[in-house]
Design goal:
Structural class: mainly beta
Largest sheet: 5 strands, antiparallel
Strand order of the largest sheet: 1-7-8-9-10
Number of strands: 13
Radius of gyration: 20 Å
Strand content: 25-35%
Shape: globular
Number of helices: 1
Distance between the termini: 62 Å
Amino acid sequence: MSKNRYSRKELYNVGAQPSYTGRNLDEIVFPLGGIGTGCISLGGWGQLRDFEIMNKPSKGYAIPNTFFTLKVKSDSGSSVTKILQGPAGGSFVGGGHNLGSSNDKNDGAQGLPHFRKAVFTGTFPTATLELEDPEVPLKVVLEAYNPFIPLNEKDSSIPVAVLVYSFENVSDKKVSATVYGNLTNVIGEKRRRRKNQRNQERQNSHGAIPFQHQGCP
């Protein structure tokens, strides 16, 4: 009779997960989204990619100009603006790079200023990304997670991906910070044979002009 090589305790033990940085981030893709609802993916340096939300597989598809940005201003009046991502990189996978394609253009903020250092740790259903930069007096932590609850398929199937940014002032000076997100509306993409319609009645007090497509809520 064979003898078990590992004890039950060893089999069920959960060890520390490795963290990745540098160009090791290039191949990381962390899925976000409810079960059976489609998903988007969080890349290793914090980029959003693989938007599979059109009822079909879309690996490699990235919605153009979709990212979060941080602006930090000190009491002296000087300010710095950075994309909330680590250094954009690439690999030898997928046509010589893995930045992802968006409408046949690489316009995912690769040319804009990024944080100098990123550290990624994946512990499904949660991913943690730590960002640091000598020009930014804040330590930034992104926690991204899925609505994944074991033995609860109803709530685990909520069509949502959660991104939570936290900021810590690591300087001895008072600073103000502004975070804003940018998301291109792809409902009216020409290649999908759809057209956005401006909704005058729903124009809100913040100056935003809502668009919608017939047949879409």
